[in-house]
């Protein structure tokens, strides 16, 4: 079954993003270009030795990164950041350290590093990519409709910020698709809560939730189901069986979860908090 992150995925080939990233990495790591950018870096007789050490670490880090050995790659990049912060390779190391965290599934850590990069290098050509990745870190926190939708809301804001600041970036098209994905997740979460209220015979609360959903997300894919369910509730004919068929086609929780009788919002918030730690 598809997850929230995959259901509304854009049709744009992922290879396009990888090509763009590769180009960015080359522009950051190319020895000639980067040396020119940091031509003022000098520490006397130790300069050549320090440069060689940083260059060796960068090469090792990129080699590990390309084979998805993110743990070892991160160690190399972090060593550059810690011991050679003014070297030509430091800029590349900052960016790839964030990427290592992201592809290791450590989205909170990755987001923090991406934001640091953006703050330190606001005019760097990699900033649109960094802003896109911040949005992806947010979106990756939303994987099931029974979870806290804060990640999806943050993602919508992050991708919208990218479009405002860099409307013509290579990531604009993908960002628009991700905004739609985030909005669909939020709408489906609202609908899930309404169905939960129906399941627990809280019909008035369910109607309020459905009306709010229809008013705030009128174009969401789940709206036809929401309207049909609302009509039944207003007619005093709530569904009594087959409640599963009323749920949207997202990754769902274990059905035994329904029997615990816990408040859906409180419970999902706790689960999301634990998953982010």
From TrEMBL:
Residue intervals of the Outer membrane lipoprotein BamD-like domain: 56-228
Protein name: Beta-barrel assembly machine subunit BamD
InterPro entries: BamD (IPR017689), BamD-like (IPR039565), TPR-like_helical_dom_sf (IPR011990)
Keyword NADP: no
Pfam family, one: YfiO
Organism ancestry: Bacteria, Pseudomonadati, Thermodesulfobacteriota, Desulfobulbia, Desulfobulbales
Entry keyword Ubl conjugation: no
NCBIfam families per record: OM_YfiO (TIGR03302)
Keywords on record: Cell outer membrane, Membrane, Signal
């Amino acid at each position: 079954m598809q997850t929230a992150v995959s259901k509304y995925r854009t049709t744009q080939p992922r290879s396009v993003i990888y090509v763009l990233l590769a180009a960015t990495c080359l522009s950051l790591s190319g020895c000639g270009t980067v040396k020119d950018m940091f031509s003022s870096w000098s520490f006397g007789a130790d300069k050549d030795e320090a440069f060689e050490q940083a260059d060796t670490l960068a090469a090792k880090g990129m080699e590990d990164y390309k084979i998805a050995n993110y743990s070892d790659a991160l160690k190399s990049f972090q060593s550059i950041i810690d011991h050679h912060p003014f070297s030509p390779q430091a800029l590349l190391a900052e960016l790839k350290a964030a990427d290592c965290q992201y592809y290791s599934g450590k989205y909170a850590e990755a987001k923090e590093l991406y934001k640091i990069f953006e703050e330190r290098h606001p005019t760097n050509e990699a900033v649109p990519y960094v802003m896109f990745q911040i949005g992806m870190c947010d979106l990756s926190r939303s994987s099931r409709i029974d979870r806290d939708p804060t990640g999806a809301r943050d993602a919508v804001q992050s991708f919208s910020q990218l479009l405002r600041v860099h409307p013509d970036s290579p990531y604009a098209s993908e960002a628009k698709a991700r905004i739609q994905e985030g909005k669909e997740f939020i709408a489906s979460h609202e609908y899930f809560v309404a169905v939960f209220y129906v399941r627990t015979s809280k019909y008035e609360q369910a109607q309020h939730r459905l009306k709010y959903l229809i008013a705030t997300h009128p174009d969401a894919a789940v709206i036809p189901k929401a309207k049909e369910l609302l009509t039944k509730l207003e007619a005093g004919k709530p569904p009594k069986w087959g409640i599963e068929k009323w749920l949207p086609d997202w990754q769902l929780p274990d059905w035994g979860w329904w029997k615990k009788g816990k408040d859906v919002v409180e419970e999902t918030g706790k689960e999301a908090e634990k998953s982010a730690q």
